[in-house]
Amino acid sequence: MKVKSPVADSIAVTIYHNPACGTSRNVLALIRNAGVEPYVIEYLRAPPDRKTLESLLTRMHMKPRELLREKGAPYSELGLADKALSDGQLLDAMMAHPILINRPIVVTPWGVKLCRPSDALLDILPLPQKGPFKKEDGELLIDERGNRVSI
Question: 14-17 and 39-42 as β-strands: parallel, antiparallel, unpaired?
């Protein structure tokens, strides 16, 4: 029987999640491997409002272009590669098309981060892992002693 950590139970963690994204699924599972049940926001169904997105960007020390998802539509269709576009215009595009917001974004008491690659989560969630963890592709991130595997 697994004993739950009272510390992990009291930690507030939020993940802006897309269940269709492997990296997002891995990060969610890694949070749970630390004994934390996060508040999950499926951001394509419930996108953050502009103020929230701006706050997340500020807390991550990122500009909108750095959070912009370039892969797939509608990035190319909207001409978002144009470096002349302002931060405001990029935010407008993300508000109109939440798929343009890269994910997963995780908020913990230790920081806010775009968790790509998955193990970036460990920088802002320094709780002990409950056991080994392999990503969906089989890559080992946490060994049997709960330690981060060096790549």
Answer: parallel
115 is catalytic: no
pLDDT digits (tens, 9 = 90+) for 83-99: 999 999 999 999 999 99
**What is the sign of the dihedral through the CA atoms of 110, 94, 43 and 54?**
positive
Per the residue annotation, which of 5, 11, 17, 21 is the catalytic one?
A: 21
The token duo for 38 is 């996060």
Give the CATH architecture of domain 8-142.
3-Layer(aba) Sandwich (3.40)
Per-domain residue ranges of the chain: 8-142
Q: How far are the Cα atoms of 24, 91, 136 from residue 46, in angstroms, in the given order?
A: 16, 16, 25
pLDDT band at 147 (very low <50, low <70, confident <90, very high): confident
Reported as a single tens digit per residue, the pLDDT across 19-41 is 999 999 999 999 999 999 999 99
What residues are paired with 142 via a beta bridge?
133, 148
Q: Quick one: tokens of 143?
A: 């060994």
